[in-house]
Here is the input.
Amino acid sequence: KLETVDVRELEMPLPMHAILEALNELPEDKALFVYHKRIPVFLLPELEEQKFSYRIKKISDAEVHLLIYKD
Here is the structure.
């Protein structure tokens, strides 16, 4: 039930655009797993506004995993 997107190689602000686009196409019963290189602080308010929940796991200084879903 996961869709995956890897935005680690994209330059700002492309990761945010790629994530929002993937969420726009995400089926209701799926979650989005994101490989990112940092915590996307500008994305988080947007997720909350769109009623998405998220979990963040910092793997290292250069890698973060996000799980984004609707309750």
